[in-house]
Amino acid sequence: xxxxxxxxxxxxxxxxxxxxxxxxxxxxxxxxxxxxxxxxxxxxxxxxxxxxxxxxxxxxxxxxxxxxxxxxxxxxxxxxxxxxxxxxxxxxxxxxxxxxxxxxxxxxxxxxxxxxxxxxxxxxxxxxxxxxxxxxxxxxxxxxxxxxxxxxxxxxxxxxxxxxxxxxxxxxxxxxxxxxxxxxxxxxxxxxxxxxxxxxxxxxxxxxxxxxxxxxxxxxxxxxxxxxxxxxxxxxxxxxxxxxxxxxxxxxxxxxxxxxxxxxxxxxxxxxxxxxxxxxxxxxxxxxxxxxxxxxxxxxxxxxxxxxxxxxxxxxxxxxxxxxxxxxxxxxxxxxxxxxxxxxxxxxxxxxx
Amino acid sequence: xxxxxxxxxxxxxxxxxxxxxxxxxxxxxxxxxxxxxxxxxxxxxxxxxxxxxxxxxxxxxxxxxxxxxxxxxxxxxxxxxxxxxxxxxxxxxxxxxxxxxxxxxxxxxxxxxxxxxxxxxxxxxxxxxxxxxxxxxxxxxxxxxxxxxxxxxxxxxxxxxxxxxxxxxxxxxxxxxxxxxxxxxxxxxxxxxxxxxxxxxxxxxxxxxxxxxxxxxxxxxxxxxxxxxxxxxxxxxxxxxxxxxxxxxxxxxxxxxxxxxxxxxxxxxxxxxxxxxxxxxxxxxxxxxxxxxxxxxxxxxxxxx
Lengths: 353, 305
What we know:
heterodimer, A: about 0% strand, B: mainly alpha, two-stranded antiparallel ribbon, 2 strands, about 0% strand
């Protein structure tokens, strides 16, 4: 196996294990035995098809938000606002589905909803790219802040126009079954969105590495000025990259609303954007790697929830595991660099001798 | 009006703490993107320390310690291991959310009613607080607010009039030159990150024990990022940070005021909640000339080793 790939796999595996061990040690504070807790966790994740399939259900939106971060990252841009783009996507998905479900056949309503989501959340994201290109604003700050604005918009709509007919809770009415994303395996929650997510990962990989557009995006990320000299319009690419990035995050909202929740609930999935960044880092920004990293995070989520249902382990263990894993993954970057440098040095020494 | 302005100063206090610390650290080239996590753990530790010991001083010491720990982790990874600042910050912020939610549960279990402590009292300064208009605005605040009156001029003086300040600014503009002068760039950067940890910890504790007297995991809600933004918008200058802080403090004060009088029927509350964030976007977009430290976000690697 190629030395670099081997390093990547080994160091990242170690990082994941260390992250899980570290959060397991935290369980000692609760007087829980981490080993037995994790044993219960693993056995219960695979105990039945429903729970096992849930891993992939949870991985679905994570793939999209991870792609959202990875995509702009390739252009050396930071989209920290995937959370907000996800909210915008979710709001549009719920609103469009509720409106279209009564006048169109289900499949047509779903397709139109998906297009509206892509357009809406794409434009929301493209705004960040636009102000970056036009006014040279800091895209990191603007995308960060746009999340809080999106949250306010969602909360406002859930309290007013989109509120359920009973007007009791800040949530929408349930969608009709005709606009639910079809189930892939009966008896589980696994819906066709998972397939869509995997295909999107592959599509983004092809786009980035096999098309002229992807080449231009990576060229801008590698050296914006040199790319500009070579006749690549960096500013246009900023807007386009952020449009695609925002649309990707928005589709996560679509799969969650139409595939899992079947309604829009206030404050759902508040950490999906941040987890997406963690997955993108873990996968080293590679769209294919994101598939596996997202499934891992999905497993952490399902496992963490089961642990949360067990006696006295709070569900914040999920964030703890995610946080520890991410920190260790960053340390793994350092270790990999160090290994690589050593290898280079040895090569040079051999050459001298 | 007096009430609103006095609130502005109060809500601006933690922002100025955070923004000033961020200005100093970013001048050395270190974006402290872990600032949200530092704020959050500061708020958590401040509350826990105060609740368990009954003393606000212990609370603030605990907050400082928590801020230091987070900053040390961040500084170690970014300064010494030279990893990516934005990515590291995001990871640490997630870890911070998990840690404080988990440890809160470990210490307090699931309380039926929210736990509270009595927050920092306002100390009217004799004579000065009697001045009409100005008195109640500036001199009827809590002790942390009085500190910020000195913080801004002091940090300005430190950055521009002392040799330490020169070293700090050079570390972000031309680290090689600092290195040639025999000063360790990495040490300078690490120390300023630690300083940001201390000040960020205090700022975070201001939210939990400075005026609310309680802790929730969404208590900070992006205020760390706003301090981060103020540093950018203030052009990496303590003077700019003061102006930015006043603007954001005022926005927050208005938001609280509008919600309390229940103007909901005409303008939705959410609009006021979103004002500080919208303001950041508008200001980021409208600012033309930025004086970004040349090596901001770039790890320092010596040429030969």
